[in-house]
Amino acid sequence: MNIGEAATRSGVSAKMIRYYESIGLITPPARTAAQYRVYAADDVHTLRFVRRSRDLGFSLEETRELLALWRDKSRASADVKSLAMAHVRALEEKAAELKAMADTLRHLATHCHGDHRPDCPILADFAAAPTVQA
Amino acid sequence: MNIGEAATRSGVSAKMIRYYESIGLITPPARTAAQYRVYAADDVHTLRFVRRSRDLGFSLEETRELLALWRDKSRASADVKSLAMAHVRALEEKAAELKAMADTLRHLATHCHGDHRPDCPILADFAAAPTVQA
DNA sequence: CTTGACCTTTCCATTATGGGAAGCTTTATA
DNA sequence: TATAAAGCTTCCCATAATGGAAAGGTCAAG
What we know:
Strand content of chain A: under 5%
Oligomer: homodimer
């Protein structure tokens, strides 16, 4: 199949498939005489794996490691698990960070009239000297 | 004061101060005969405002709007508040997204032995046909 | 045989930040 | 004072992952 079909079937854009190939994340497929890339069903499988990994927030480099583990039939599941759990912690940390920002801002907004008047605790806070805010 | 001191006092790196100037976020300061940038106390104030805005996750474009509102003494606090609340929603949405990824992955990891054996539900999931996972 | 859909490569843009080089200035030290 | 260190200037490059567009070749259907 051509790259377009592989893209549709895997959920990875043709653009990205070429990119992944260029950085060595996936192996270069065969080519027709006219240089068209030709993919096999198994390649779509790999692309789906990458897609899933990306959807779960793994970077391409992490995805590269996961792919290597996937291909290595003698891997230790402990290796996969530790990689996954490290990522879980990173995700949770990032989520908590965003939540903290939201909470701080929501708190400030609570005290803002939100009417025609110019007074605004949000701007006042931004303009204030650096302090550890709630 | 020179850019280094302004950087230290504001918490914005000299590199970033120059960049903010280049994109018109802050106004170009005066220069000495030797072309050194000269900042006033008020400039540090502005830089701190930008820093705080960035720390709360606003993009530079959003920060630009906030700065404009800050400078506009006849602004309506409603405008500030709506900008802030839109951002709060975006932050919470993003946080929820990350949390969902973490939950999914943690769930998969729960069923992974995490020992020397190669069998791993995490990789199995990644390799599976696209399905709506828990 | 033409048209349209699809493929190819290459270049550019995004967001915000850091690193480094080459060269000038100012300050501190011997 | 001479010199070195620290600080400033501009310019270029790199990052992560993706999309867009241009210019041109290919293939299938009408």
